[in-house]
Amino acid sequence: MGALIGKTLSHYRIVENIGAGGMGEVYRAHDARLGRDVAIKVLPPHLSATPEVRARFEREARTISQLNHPHICTLHDVGHQDGVDYLVMELVEGETLAQRLEKGPLSTSEVLRLGAQIADALDRAHRDGVVHRDLKPGNVMLTKSGAKLMDFGLARTSAPIQEAGATAVSPTMSRSLTAEGTIVGTLQYMAPEQLEGKEADARSDIWALGCVLYEMATGARAFEGKSQASLIAAVLKVEPRSMTELQPLTPLALERVVKRCLEKSPEDRLQSARDLAFDLEGVSGSASGAIPVAAGIGASARRRFGWHLVLASALASALLAAAITFLIAQSNRPTDASRLTYSRLTFQRGIIGEARFSPDGKTVFYSAAWDGRPQEVFETRLGFPTSRALGLTETKLLSISKDGRMAVLLGQRENVVGTLAEVPISGGAPRRILEDVWSCDWSPDGKTLAVVRRVGGKERLEMPPGRVLYETAGGIAGVRLSHDGESIAIIEHPLHMDSRGSAVILDTTGRVVSRTKEEWNYVIGLAWTPDDREVWFTASKDGAMTELRAISPSGRERVVTRVPGMMFLTDIGPNGQVLLQDITLQVGIRGRRSPLEEERELGWFDFPYVADISGDGETLLFGESGIYGGNLYAVCLRGMDGSPPVRLGEGRPCSLSPDGAWALALHFGPPQRLILLPTGAGDSTSFTRGRIENYYDAGWLPDGTSIVFAGSEAGHAQRTYIQDLRGGLPRAISPEGIAGWRASPDGKFVAGRSRDNRLYICPTSGDSARFVTQLQEGEGVVQWASDGRSLYVGHEGVSMSVSKIDVATGRRSPWRSFSPPDSMNVRVEAAVLTPDGRSFAYSYFRTSAALYLVEGLK
Questions:
Q1: 3-state SS string over 549-593?
Q2: Nearest Cα to 503, choosing from 419, 455, 560, 454?
Q3: What is the C-alpha to C-alpha distance for residues 801 and 831, in angstroms, rounded to an integer?
Q4: How far is CA 4 from the centre of its chain?
Q5: Element containing residue 96 per DSSP (H, E)
Q6: Read out DSSP for 28-68?
Q7: N vs C: which end of the chain shows fewer Cβ within 10 Å?
Q8: What is the distance between the alpha carbons of residues 599 and 424, in angstroms, rounded to a whole number?
Q9: Mind spelling out the 3-state secondary structure of 151-164?
C-alpha cells in the first residue's frame, strides 16, 4: 500500500503513511479543494474483495458520519476510486494514549479530565445507538484540545457480537505473544459478557473505559495473563489489584468509580457513560474516609444534658436557618453542564439567522444561508435529522405568534434592515407590514408587534409600530415579549452593531424595570422562560467562556449554566427546552512565496493573523492570540515555505526590519509601548515614548535606523510620527487626523489616511501632506509598489480586493484579489505582500453554524 504515496484519490493527494491496523492503513493526505491536511483510511485490495470486511468498512463510515462530538474524530468524506475504498477523516495530531502510557501513569488531574472527555464521547455515541466495542488506549488520541475517540471499525448498533457460546475476539487484536507469552491487544479491555459471547451494549464500553482509567492512573493493566485462556479467566473471575496499592496517591473516590465500571455483571456497573462522566468530574482528588463517632454518653454528660438541650435547640435553629440558606443557594447554582443533553438539529454548512419553536414546541423553524445560497426559511421536527425548506428565499425569520404566523424580513441576503411581513407557518404568500425593520416580536394575542427600527441615527423600540417606547443612540437587539404581555426584554448595545451590551427588561410604557448590573463584552440572544419569571441570555466577558445567564424583573441575576464553545441562545420552548446556536470559527493564514508555487496554509495554533512579510518573500511575521486570549498576543515568525514557527515574545506584531534582524511590536502594557524583539540572539528593547499616549501601528524606514508609527498624544487626534532609534523624541510629520506607517522605498514619504478615508502622502521631512484620492469605506494601504510611484490598497471582505493607485494622479487600477478555496462564509481580514507583488500572505476566518436542542436546564 506504500505505492499510494504521491497518488491522488479524488482531490486528496496522499503524502505519507501514518499508521496501520487490521482494517487498513492510514495516510496523511492534502485536501487540494479546502487546502487542509486530512487522514485517509484505506481498505487494502485483498480485504476489499471480502464482502464481510468491506461491509464492516462501510459500517464504520455510516457510524462515524452520524456522530458529531468534539472528542470524536470527524468523518469528512468517503469514496471509492480505482478499486480503492477509503474514508477521509479529521487529521488528529498528537500521540495515542497507548504511546503516552509507555512513559508511565498519568497525573490524577489528567486521568479525570481525559476520562471525562472519553466518557462524554461515549455518551454521544450511545445516545445515537452506537456501541464502540473496541475502546482501548490505542484508539484514543491525545491532542492539544484533549482526547479524541477513534476507530469505530468494530462498532455495532444492535446485533450481538457472535452466537452464544463462542469466544468473541476482536479482528484488531494482535494474536502474537511476547517473549514471556503474554497476550497483547484488545482482549484486555473486553467485558466478561463479550468473552462469554453475549451481546455487547453500552455497559461493555463502560467496562473497557474502566480498564483504560485503571491503566491511566496506575500504569498497569487491570487484567493480565500469560496465555489467552489465563487472561480470559482473569477477566471473568479475578478482581484487579487495588489502585492505591499500585499508586498510593490515587484518590479513593476515583478507585470507587473505576470499581463500579469493572463490576463483572453489567447490571451492577454504572449504567451510562453520562453518569460516568459526571462521577469523574465530581471526584475531588483528595483522600476521603469515615470519621469515627462515639457510641455512648458518659454519666457526667447525662447529668449536664438538660443544659445542653437548650444549647442544642438554639443550635438546631441555627442549623435550620443555614439549611434554608443553603437550599436557596443550591437553587441558584448553575446547572452542571455534564447533566445536559445536546441534540444537533442542523447538519449543513452555512450561517443561521434566527430560530424559534412552534407554539406546541414540537417543531423548530429557522432561517439559514446554506452552502453560500441566499437566506431562506426551514422547519425541522424534533427527533428527525432533516429539514424542509418552506419556499421563502431571501427571507429571515424573526418571530412566531401563538396562532402560527411567522414574522419575517424579506429580501435578506445580509443581516440588515428589511421589509417586515407575515406569513402562516403552513405556507402562503407573505403579507407586507412595515419597511425598515431591524427585529420584532409578536404580542401574546398576536394582534400587534414590537419592532426595532433605526430612525434619524437612533435605534428605537416601537409597540405598536409607530409608538416609541424606548430609544437609544446605540443599538437594540433581540426584542422579546413576555408570555403575559406585561414586559419586554431587549439587549441594549452602547454602539450600533456592537457586541457589548446589557440585558434590559421594560414594562409596556417603556420604563426600565431591571437591567444587568454589568455591561458584557459579548452578549447575544435572549428569551423568556415559560413561567415569565426570568429572561435568559448568553454573555461573555472576554470571549473565553460563555455563560447562559438569567435576570428577573426584580433584578435578581444568576448563572444558569456554562455554555461550551461559541454557543448562544436563540429560543426557549414551552416545555423548557432550549435552542442554542453554535458558531464554528476557522481562522488561518494562506500565502505563497513565488508565482510558481501553490498557496499553502501558514497559520499556527488557534487565531493567527498576518503582520508583515520580508522584502525577499521568504519570512512571515504574524501574531497568534489563541495562546493568550484577549488583547495579549504572541509575536511569531516562520518561513514562507511552511517551516515550523518561532515565537519571539509577547505583543502585537507590526513590522520586520529591512535586514530581518528585528520585529517591531506593540506591547499593551501598561503602559502601552513599542518594543523591538530580536529574530535571532539578543535582548528585546523599548524606546522613549515622549508624550505619546497611544500607539496604533508601526513600520520601518528603509535605512533601518528609524521607525514610523501612527500614534496620538493626550487630548489630540492620531497622526504620523518618526522615531530615530539612536535617540531623541518622536517627531510628528503629519497634521492631526492623518495617520500612517507605510514608508516609500526611498524613505521620503509615508502613506497616511484621514478619519474620513482620504489618502494622503506625508513627506518624512515634515512638509505639508498632499491629498491623493478618496478611499472606499474599509479600504487601507497594503504596501508601496517597488517603483515608489504607486500604492497597493486593499478592501476587506469575502475576498480582499487589491487595487493599485498612482500617487501622482490618484488613478486606480484593479490588481488582484485574495480568497481561500471554498470561500463560503469567509472574510479576508488583512493581506501583506512584497513590493514586487510576487509573494503574499493573507488572514481569513470562515464561519459556520449549527442548531442544538438542549434539555435538562432549570
A1: EEECCCCCEEEEEEECCCEEEEEECCCCCEEEEEEEEEEEEEEEC
A2: 560
A3: 10
A4: 34
A5: strand 95-96
A6: EEEETTTTEEEEEEEE-HHHHTSHHHHHHHHHHHHHHHT--
A7: C
A8: 49
A9: CCCCCECCCCCCCC
For residue 842, which amino acid is it? Y
Rounded to whole angstroms, what are the CA distances from 122 to 99, 131, 589? 21, 8, 34
| Residue type, position 810, single letter | G
Distance CA 225, CA 185 (A): 12
Instruction: Give the model's confidence band at 738: pLDDT under 50 very low, under 70 low, under 90 confident, else very high.
Output: very high
How far lies 195's CA from each of 216, 268, 772, 851, in Å?
23, 17, 81, 41
And the C-alpha cell for 243?
A: 489502585
Amino acid identity, position 237: K
Q: For 573, list phi and psi in degrees, rounded to 5.
A: -80, 170
CB 451 within 8 A of CB 442: no
**What grid cell was written down for 763?**
513627506
Picking from 757, 754, 766, 676, the residue whose alpha carbon sits closest to that of residue 730 is 766
The answer to whether residues 95 and 165 touch, using CB atoms and an 8 Å cutoff, is no
Please give the model's pTM, rounded to 2 decimal places. 0.53
Residue 428: its H or E element:
none
Output the CA torsion 170→77→115→241 (10° steps).
10
Q: What angle do CA 349, 439, 535 make, to 5 degrees?
A: 90
Helix axis angle, 252-261 to 273-282, nearest 10° = 170
Count of CB atoms within 10 A of residue 558's CB? 15
Q: Give the model's pLDDT for residue 45.
A: 63
For 416, what's the count of Cα atoms within 13 Å in the CB-facing half-sphere?
A: 5
Q: And the C-alpha cell for 779?
A: 479600504
Residues 389 and 384: their CA atoms lie apart, in Å, by 14
| Cell 450600533, residue located | 496
Residues paired with 1 in a beta bridge: none
Nearest to 95 by CA among 40, 136, 26, 141: 141
Alpha-carbon distance of 858 to 852, in angstroms, equals: 17
Cell of 601: 496554509
Which residue carries 498576543 as its cell?
Answer: 633
First to last CA, the chain: 54
What's the whole-number mean pLDDT along residues 92-99? 84
- Which secondary-structure segment (H or E) carries 429? none
Residue 338: is its pLDDT beyond 70? no
Given a contact cutoff of 8 angstroms between Cβ atoms, the answer to whether 538 and 546 are in contact is: yes
Mean pLDDT to the nearest integer, 560-584: 90
Residues 396 and 411: their CA atoms lie apart, in Å, by 8
Closest Cα to residue 43, out of 82, 84, 8, 14? 84
**Cis (ω within 30 of 0) for the bond into 608?**
no
Mean per-residue pLDDT for 226-233? Answer: 83
Note whether 720 and 738 are within 8 A (CB).
yes
Structural element, H or E, at residue 274: helix 273-282
In single-letter form, the type of residue at position 606 comes to D
Residue 228 phi/psi, 5-degree rounding, is -60, -40
Cell 446589557: give the residue: 502
d(CA 215, CA 209): 10
Range with the poorest average pLDDT among 165-169, 583-587, 670-674: 165-169
574 φ/ψ sector (left φ>0, alpha ψ -120 to 50, else beta): alpha
Q: Helix axis angle, 252-261 relative to 202-218, nearest 10°?
A: 140
Give the span between the Cα atoms of 397 and 375, in whole angstroms. 9
* Calpha distance 56→99 (Å, rounded): 27
- Which residue is it, cell 493567527? 608
Check: CB of residue 56 under 8 Å from CB of residue 134: no
Q: Mind listing the pLDDT tens digit for each residue in 270-307? A: 888 888 887 887 774 333 332 222 223 233 332 333 33
For 148, residues 6+ apart whose C-beta sits below 8 A from its C-beta are 71, 72, 73, 92, 94, 121, 140, 141, 142
